[in-house]
Amino acid sequence: MQPLPLVLAALIAAAAVLAVAMPFVRRPRRSSERGPDAQPPQLELLERRDRALAALAELEFDHRTGKIADADYHRLLGPLRGEAAEALRLVRGTARRAVEPKRTTQKRRRRAVPAVASKEPS
């Protein structure tokens, strides 16, 4: 066999292996370096809210089953409630901004609607 087809086949195979392996070899980007495919802030806030509420539910469950003493329960409850409240406030704030229409600086003028004389049959 001639060496040229073997070299081309080896280069194509190496390129294919490299193309498949690149996503696994790269380091993950930081959130500040993320591009347009990054998670939207709303999704991150929803995940934060879910984590906070799950932590509260788990703390409550552990307290009811006796795994956590009353003193520890009350010590942990305050910060978890604060985190859950903050997450809920942020989620509601971003949801309101997404729903509210953008306000324009110009006032809309009402158009005068001509009065229509109704003719009632006599």
CA-based shape? flat
Radius of gyration: 31 Å
Mean residue pLDDT:
79
Classification by helices and strands: mainly alpha
Search tags:
122 residues, mainly alpha, 3 helices, flat
Summarize the structure.
The protein has 122 residues and is mainly α. It is built from three helices and no strands. It has helices at residues 3-25, 41-64, 70-99.
Provide a descriptive summary of the structure in words.
This protein is mostly helical. The longest helix is centred in the last third of the chain and has 30 residues, at 70-99. It contains 3 helices and no strands. It has helices spanning 3-25, 41-64, 70-99. The model has no long low-confidence stretch (mean pLDDT 79). The radius of gyration is 31 Å and the shape is flat.
Topology:
Layout: H1 3-25, H2 41-64, H3 70-99
Helix pairs in contact: 2-3
